[in-house]
Write a structure and sequence with these properties.
Chains A, B, C, D: Its EC number is 1.1.2.3. Chains A, B, C, D: It comes from Glonium stellatum. 4 copies of one chain form a homotetramer. By secondary structure, the first copy, chain A, is of the alpha/beta class. Chain A is built from 19 helices and 16 strands. Helices cover 36% and strands 12% of the residues of chain A. The longest helix of chain A has 33 residues.
Chain lengths: 504, 504, 504, 504
């Protein structure tokens, strides 16, 4: 059968026809009612060929959808491989086995707390854990190795305590500040996180709308589920967005992306520098694992399953040779301010000033890259004195992300000298559980918390926040406790309280 | 129908009549057998209109009672809105659904430990948790945000250890001291806590009687369930009381309150400075939440439930613009010693000395306001050296509250330089569980503990307590532990003890 | 009826007769088959009258036995109150209700691990907890207040780590040392602990025999269940014992006790200085509590139950006015070396040197007196440098007790400069669970452990132990961790391991 | 019956004949189908006579096999005691009682995760725990005393955090380094661990093959289950191995072993210096305990069971008098580089340099010897500055072992100055659970992890690793937390999340 180009297709393809191309030798898949020949593309697929072959000759839409922006096929698959429309009535629906886990999830969704029951950002996380698909939860919530940095990010804020001022006039609280010249209503931004459609079918545009409502900035991720233009288009006039960039080995592509973003109005370029390779996240890997076909013990020691979770599937666009000497080139191709995202030690902040970038984000990628990287806020406490010592604290804007869940966390970071903080997962969870109303409420809660806590710390606006308001002596303590012995674990009586009367 | 003034009412109102006024447009409620038109008052109600509307056209007494002092309606609702007596026989009794939680609580009350089974202040807390209404427990026991400061208040005492002296003649122990010139039998006072009737129908007057028995001072809260005069009247001649003050935006009201208190014999004015806005306490908010009418998912992201627990309902009387420049005015309107309650850093203690107040309470409001505020006793350990360095330690009396549960806690605070400590929740719990006998026993236990521990530390009276008797090196460590990895959590064998013989 | 003196009694008393004297007005009790009139003694009873009245007109032997040395009645009850023999056949046996707890205990005793299954001192503790009577376990195992010092005593050793030497010739290990001039085989002694018969009907003489087998010294407690002379008589010729002394207000009694001990061959006088009043131990108090007769709620707040556990029952023999100025008197009445037991800070050790005593025990009474007293070994680490600085380290012998469970604990104390360590509870538990074989095995295990660990630390004898062999940097950290928030407690996934294959 | 020498045996021995020799007086056993007279050997058996007597007159092969290298009988039992072949058909098979634990284990083996489900080294440990024989698991996994050092070894790495560099060209990662002159592909070696056949019937040769595949060095243990020559023979040409040596009291034997190893091509001699006596490992001892015959309570306090687990059974070959003065002798008998394995403090490293050895392993024997020995990596952080201060850091190679589970652990050790790390248990567990494929995958995982983490820390090869890349401030904190009181344990509400809707 001769296939016309997809614009002039005379007759729809049938399921039976497609089903024949179900092997590595000839591999067709159906996506959104159109067929594609991906045989030659198999070895190039960033997520590995295996996951495609699972759908060879079949409809792959459901698996494909949340991981790929809509312009993916146009961009990466030659038009000659676009085979045209499929008569979907002729495609056999896969009868899925009833999955008891999924059934339980549906039950949990029915009993899901109403939105007003979420009183803080952690609550969204708890709800999302219950109602998200297991694999989506695994992708969002996982961290590198033993997830020690991931948890430390939040714990680090717990090591910082307040030294509040009293008797300040705090009737009128002004939370606004500026970030890279943009005035925002509250000093956080929505940081870039990948694969938004895993949590909500609309994807990142929900965050765009939420950011608009509260006049905060959204950072657009390279690896969004929506296309870059969709996210830009979702913004209202005057709404500010930034671009997060993974640098492609092909600098022409990178240049195109950057200049396109600038043209479309992006006001900041955040170059990710903590991910020369995307991290291993074992929870994510475990969640993808399927028993099917692997009940026979492998004897080779080789990886038979190369799909390795969502994280690994998207990692081939990153240039591991990116280095300081590339920075001038970036400064040359755009007028957007350039910020290095993922700086993790004082020395590199100083160097960032020297090379002339406009900001850094002290970040460890949400604990998803190098385990035992220190939290951004701990690094911040080292960075600011070093900058002040040199009189450089105005030369560069310092941002922090990772582990922010409370307005007190934001205040702590600002007291220590940050210009603002990035928040990622909490908004993803709010979006995954409740959509836009969730994101809206999450931001509302932060605003309410922050207004109150500014009052309680005795500051009427963010300029008043300063290092004397915090006690950071606990921040450098990286210690584990000594494991208990049998006395403590098994022999000592637990302490008891009063005894109830015997039942009469 | 024409309503006479309530003094000349010819005929009682009927339930049917009142039931008609059940909307925002016309809202009547019955309280203690009398009807009130609160339609115009709705938007002014500190607790929000919603909670009133729930009782529109109905008897609201049970909900109203524990939260409002008896003189509230006279003070805040114009006489013209007092509609007069109601024929309560005609008011339909709401048939309450049987509440399984309440039933369980009644069962727990039956099996409640006898009072003699309470051996320390924590025991009252454990009992109260079991026998109090859930909402009352939530109001008393809740803290700000993650309740980290609330717990830290108690934990901080655990970081202070003793360096006891031996071979001192400790046959006769004298626990007495003076506070603001008043001789007391033991160096604690009953600090101000709101809404005493939530725990016991008689309210704060029980604490008045308990304080009398042990010759300690009671601080009268602005937000008591009993009226100020009721609490004053409950004192015996010569019994000393202090006033805790939330400063109203209307300084005339404030002045009236202060001067009234002075006239009625109060011996100290404690101005709360750590609460320009009342804290969010999520446990309290969660406890108020009701499913009724909210089973439909909200889609707006707006708060539909504004009642937000007892804490938020009482917060509108506080002036957030109160500042240092108001202090001279206070010094001018009263001869009572003035103490700032809620000071949280050295700098502000020094300033308090400079502005000429007579004392400060190092306090974080029982962990109910700013989470990650440090404990009062930790601040104390910084404050006293700074005062001594300037020779100012006699210029001001330093008090501490928060987390005191043991006589050793009191001793620690006094060793570090406090004049006395405030104790709040423990007496509330004792009162809630056992009434006056509970409060009496709680104070007795503290006295017994303190007498013994004074002996054991080698001091016959409180003047002998001094900093060499404590080791505070652990006090500044604000650290969390590193989260364990799978080895520790899942793989290492727990340590085992000897194995029992096999059953024969 | 006329009662003859007990030596010339013509006829035995009957149960019926005795049963008449069952009130505060006339109170007789039977002990070991003889009747006593304790009416007048009631108010003087150290344990309070209530516990005696429980047995008024009845046989009190079982309750009396483990708490009182055999010579108690002769010493403290006037001969005229000794009513003579009782015809025990006529005394009604109290039919005890079957106690389900006791039944379970008997079951546990049947399944008790054989002695060889105890591989360390903690094992005896675990077994004893299961097989001892609840009240006996409560008395031995309880500590003051929140039992924080009690647990800290053991934990403190966990903060000390080794810096072992390698390549030392450790073929022959010599564990012997001298204590107050006596050569012992291993550097621990059996410290004084009260009420041995609670654990074993033979009481403290079992420890005497165990100490003999291993050539270590036993310290005889003032409050032993066996009489002092019984314990002395149980020793073999040449076996060295010490006396622990609670100082009686009546110095004549004290002098008699001390000089009697010296005459009977005691080689050291350990004056307890950390117990001017015996501690409150709440577990002990709770264990004594009985529901009988107390189901009606008390309304007075007064203690209705004054029995307050075994600890409080034995506390009236101690002079709280004992002070430094009494020490010369002690030095004058005996030639035995005098050691202050319970010293808890450097200043007091220096003063002890100055007043000329021969030693101190750094101790907090096993955590049974002042909670938050620091561990003896922590104090030791401060004391020795202060002594060495003054060149006084040979002027006095320093002992430590509290929390020793492992030979490594002993080695740590000796490295830091202790002459030896006292061990109490572990031998009580070994004795309670297994009698003399238990004590013997416990000492054997310590010896085996110590020999091995001396090799591993690279020292052939105790003289080689020195401070460079330990790392004590963790010793001063008295910190509690920050309480976790909901993220840590409820939301973060626990780390997972590999998933088992689905069952086929 | 007259027994010929085993070479000229005319007739096979029968089971009946052998069964007669079942006592201490005459004790024969069958091993691998041949009979041996071990009557005279009984008292010399390193594992004690009891374990042999259990098999007197019977086939002991199953018990004997994993603990003894195949050349044991030839080496240690005089040829005259080799009684010759047995007609195994005549030997009664012991009908083993069905062991419910073993049955459960077999079930667990059936459901064992497939190899690809192991994503890190801890996973092998978790699987091995489930599928290994209890006694084998106990031998491998046990540590000294309270296993505090054993756990600390791993925890210590958790106290070291990274200070990663960004924007380094890390496209090409080179993990190779040299150890004692040998080029290896990744900086770890397989350290010596005893009794490999407990985990896998093939024993240590599996590790030989695994090491070959990844071009890393294997250290051959003195106490291997395979014979030294078997392990050497299993290596491929050019594959490098080292020898771990327990020094025998008989130096001729030691010399023979060392020179044989050198002749066979060993490239390093690792003299164990942390084990003058093999440690007590209570888990191991408990696992060996058998109820049989011990249901009667022992009354003597003596050890009736002397078998004491696998560890104690192999300990008699070690000379506890080995000392520094023996080192020159070793330097004289071999040209292999000499490394002291088990050095634990700075002073001894300096001395090692002075006596002229070529390296040290900072190690505490996997936590199996002295409990509270510090981790190797903690000692390393003290050692390197002391060496650098003297300019000695090139004079000696420093290795570390203990607790390494992640590539980040390896990187941390190298940053601090180690030349390489030894890994023991993880490979044993991989081998025990999955054989060679397990070992292979374990090494693969480490390589993948290390490559990624080198990128993330910003280093392209191991030479770039340096101390500025780590934050070790937490390393010296040896602290335990204060035990919680009843408030924390029993009274405070746990923090709650949002409430699910009531079921409708």
């Amino acid at each position: 059968m001769n296939h016309d180009s997809n614009n002039t297709q005379s007759q729809k393809l049938t399921g039976a026809e497609i089903a024949k191309h179900n092997s590595r030798e000839s591999c067709w898949v159906v996506i959104h009612g159109r067929a594609y020949d991906v045989t030659e593309f198999l070895p190039e697929h960033p997520g590995g060929p295996k996951i495609i072959l699972k759908y060879a000759g079949k409809d792959a839409t459901e698996e494909y959808e949340p991981i790929h922006p809509p312009d993916t096929l146009d961009k990466y698959l030659d038009k000659s491989k676009h085979l045209g429309e499929v008569d979907m009535k002729t495609v056999e629906k896969e009868v899925k086995e009833e999955d008891p886990e999924e059934k339980e999830r549906q039950e949990r969704i029915k009993r899901m707390p109403i939105l007003e029951q979420c009183y803080n950002l952690m609550d969204f996380e708890a709800v999302a854990k219950n109602v998200m698909k297991k694999t989506a939860w695994a992708y969002y919530s996982s961290g590198a190795d033993d997830e020690i940095t991931m948890r430390e990010n939040h714990s680090a804020f717990h090591k910082i305590w307040f030294r509040p001022r009293i008797l300040q006039d705090v009737e009128h609280i002004d939370l606004s500040t500026t970030m890279l010249g943009t005035k925002v209503d509250i000093p956080f931004y929505v940081t870039a996180t990948a694969l938004g459609k895993l949590g909500n079918p609309e994807g990142e545009v929900i965050l765009t709308r939420g950011a608009r409502r509260h006049n905060v900035i959204q950072m657009i991720p390279t690896l969004a589920s929506c296309s870059f233009d969709e996210i830009i288009d979702a913004a209202e006039p005057g709404q500010v967005q930034w671009l997060q960039l993974y640098v492609n080995k092909n600098r022409d592509i990178t240049k195109r992306i950057v200049q396109h973003a600038e043209r479309r109005g992006c006001k900041g370029l955040f170059i990710t520098v903590d991910a020369p390779q995307l991290g291993r996240r074992e929870k994510d890997m475990r969640s993808k694992f399927s028993d099917v076909g692997s009940s026979v013990q492998s004897t080779s020691g080789e990886d038979v399953d190369r799909s390795q979770g969502a994280a690994r599937a998207i990692s081939s666009f990153i240039d591991p040779s990116l280095s300081w000497k590339d920075i001038p080139w970036f400064l040359g191709i755009t007028k957007m301010p350039i910020i290095l995202k993922g700086v993790q030690r004082v020395e590199d902040v100083l160097r960032a000033v020297e090379v002339g970038v406009h900001g850094v984000v002290l970040s460890n990628h949400g604990g998803r890259q190098l385990d035992f990287a220190r939290s951004g806020v701990e690094v911040l406490a080292e960075v600011m004195p070093a900058l002040r010592e040199r009189g450089w604290e105005k030369k560069i804007e310092i941002y922090v992300d990772g582990g922010v869940r409370r307005a007190t966390d934001i205040i702590k970071a600002l007291c220590l000298g940050a210009k603002g903080v990035g928040i990622g997962r909490p908004f993803l969870y709010a979006m995954s559980a409740y959509g836009l109303p969730g994101v809206d409420r999450a931001m509302n809660l932060l605003k309410q918390e922050m207004e109150m806590n500014m009052r309680l710390i005795g500051c009427a606006n963010v300029e008043e926040l300063n290092p004397t308001l915090v006690d950071t002596r606990g921040l450098s303590m990286h210690n584990t406790t000594v494991p208990a012995d049998t006395l403590g674990l098994g022999v000592y009586d637990p302490l008891a309280g009063p005894k109830e009367k015997a039942k009469l």
